[in-house]
Sequence to fold (349 residues):
Amino acid sequence: MLDMNYLFKLTMEKNASDLHLTINSPPILRIDGKLLVTDLEPLSPENTKYLIYSILNDEQKANFEQNKELDFSFSVPGLDRFRVNVHYQKGNVEAAFRRVPYEIPSIEDLGIPPIVYDLVRKPNGLVLVTGPTGMGKSTTLASMINIINNERESIIISIEDPIEFYHTNKKSIIKQREVYADTHSFSEALKRALRQDPDVIVVGEMRDLETIATTLTAAETGHLVLATLHTPDAPQTVQRIIDVFPPHQQKQIRIQLADSLQCVISQLLLPRANKKGRVLATEIMVATPGIRNLIREGEIAQIPSLIQMGAQYGMHTMDKCLKELYRQGVITKEIALSKVKNVVEFERL
Fold:
């Protein structure tokens, strides 16, 4: 009979990023961004529930049945770790598994510009990693933490839901707190973190007003804060943070954000032209005096122009990165055109 260990091994052998268990379908793998339906038997509702429940403890089962949702991470002995979401679909239990390798990749392996080294060496301020779901934000965050851990003595407090990459103490002391297991919420853990003598605070996701407000305060009060946000580019990231707050607070938030922001790294994972894996495309916005002034004045629409002109500070737009990847033959023209903002300029180049 099919068991989860077999499916986890299959996920690793095929080098898939995700495994999906859904009723009336064989297990499905996501490989390099594309879905592959395995040649296994379709899963009945009973089989699907049996497979998923086989990796849950009694507390997790009770939690899931009460809340109808469950997020957790799961280690497979001798294999990788998985980030798991269990959910109901038309009354049936289903699940999605995201593979999380034990080994934390380096900035170079990921293809992130070396400016990241300068950012993680800053004593304070806010560094944001943004992009849609499944674009490697958590991996980028983990590699940034790893640089700090290797280079300097710091107390690093990381708040995650769930914990993905496990860090071991090297030069730094790293405290990884899982939402719902170790703390009730991001905002609650963040408030407590400020009393735990941190040098670096990592926020797995800035999801609500309270979390964003506390994150900004932490960045203002002398801590280096690394966080993620589900936004596609730097201008929309800035706008999203401001728009979360009621109108009467937005001027103050613009000032806070302008003073504390260090950089926004926006990223996309795109299929390679040779169909072997995916490549990272990035947009980098560094908070220069000009950028800070635009944020302070609420002139967010002018930010892309300064990013275009800011190459000497390590800045580049997503469009420029896509052009370079296409020129080098790393991605196809179709993929580039599906992601660029200014299609006319891209075609001209």
Summary: The mean pLDDT is 94. The domain at 107-348 is CATH 3.40.50.300 (Rossmann fold). The longest helix spans residues 137-151.
